[in-house]
Amino acid sequence: MDLIYWLMLLKAPHLGVRTFYKALNFFETPEQVFLASKAARKACGLFRQETLDYIEACDASTVQADLDWAKAQDCHIVTLVDDEYPAQLKDIADPPPLLYIRGDVSCLSKPQLGIVGSRNPTPAGKQNANAFAKALSKLGVIVTSGMASGIDASAHIGALEANRPTIAVCGTGLDRIYPAKHKSLAHQISTKGALVSEFCIGTSPIASNFPRRNRIISGLSLGTLVVEASIKSGTMITAKLAADQGKEVFAIPSSIHNPLSQGCHQLIKQGAKLVENIEDIIDELTLDLDTPLPDNNTPIYTKDVDNTPSVLLKCLSYEAMSIDEMVEKSGLSPQIITQELLLLELENRVTKVGGSGYLLTK
After folding, report:
1. Domain residue extents for the chain
2. What's the mean pLDDT in 114-120?
3. Can you tell me the distance from the alpha carbon of 219 to that of 196, in angstroms, rounded to the nearest whole number?
């Protein structure tokens, strides 16, 4: 029953996170906000008439869609006072009062590294994101990102290719996938790890939501790795938020002629750690690793990063082929093929047709 009041207060117009907590500190529980007198509500700082009118008239039907969503399998709503709420996130200045989670709630409390970057990266940037995510995941570090096109998607896919969980923080309600082309990716993330949002069910992808989402990515993580970024970008906002939260910031350098290296180089000038390999990251973080680090600084790229897609590409043609046919022709497992098809789809090299078939696009 208490969750209903948390949800109703979350939906109040003109009530931001800070005002939410101001009301919570004054009344102790969201339920008391709704039971209090108008005078008491005004005394706690709820001055806007629209907010007061909403609280006066609100009932459980206002949040029925959220409650119905939470009844579905692997769908959860966690409040700030619940034991499942991740401690790392609770420690930031403005933690979300509630988290909507689809997938494994427990993975939010495990050691994480945020990997973020441009939506339009270079091929090398995508490969870096994929390879670092895969290598870190194999060590037991959960990769957290924002499921955007480009670097975010490549990082999630790298973790999935390592057969490890990954966390996607969304800027929409979890009944909506943005961008829409990542529907399959979102399903794999929620099956292996978790999708997370602070936004109510039904929330559309509004531009102002994404900076708010970024503070959750950095807040959940022990540090944030910036792969490629322009000077003025959402990625740089995430890096600043991480620094403001007292978290480690890492950046991968690149050619001075690459416009997407400018953000990383600026961060390095400002004190971010220059990263060439996973040891550069692990050295800064206190972690219990699933597997030991290699004895020396081995290159981040491994043979399977480049070879698996080429094996699959050799089997594909400009006529639709099912996954079962790909298994027979390539000798790869269905899981590896599914993951590689996701990567090839994001690169616009294959397209899905007829529900279960794939064909080459270029």
Report:
1. 1-65, 103-282, 303-360
2. 96
3. 13
220-250: per-residue pLDDT in tens? 999 999 999 999 999 999 999 999 999 999 9
Level-2 CATH architecture, domain 303-360: Orthogonal Bundle (1.10)
**Assigned token pair, 244:** 């403001």
Same fold for the domain at 103-282 and the one at 303-360? no
- Tell me the helices (H) and strands (E) count for the chain, helix number first: 17, 12
- In sequence order, the 6+-apart residues with CB closer than 8 A to the CB of 114 are 144, 145, 217, 218, 220, 221, 223, 224, 225, 238, 242
Provide the 10 A C-beta neighbour count for residue 163. Answer: 13
Give me the helices (H) in 28-104, please: 30-35, 38-43, 49-57, 64-70, 87-90
C-alpha span between 235 and 118 (Å, rounded): 7
Domain 103-282 CATH class label: alpha beta
DSSP type of residue 63: G
204/227 Cα distance (integer angstroms): 27
Helices (H), 72-162: 87-90, 123-138, 151-161
Q: What's the full length of the chain, in residues? A: 362
Long-range pairs of 106-111 with CB within 8 A, sequence gap ≥ 24: 107/142, 107/165, 107/167, 107/193, 107/194, 108/84, 108/167, 108/194, 108/196, 108/220, 109/84, 110/142, 111/140, 111/141, 111/142, 111/222, 111/285, 111/287, 111/288
Please report where in the chains the tokens 């290296």 appear, as a residue.
261
* Tens-digit pLDDT profile for residues 15-63: 889 889 988 889 989 999 999 988 898 888 787 899 999 999 999 999 9
114: β partners: 144, 224
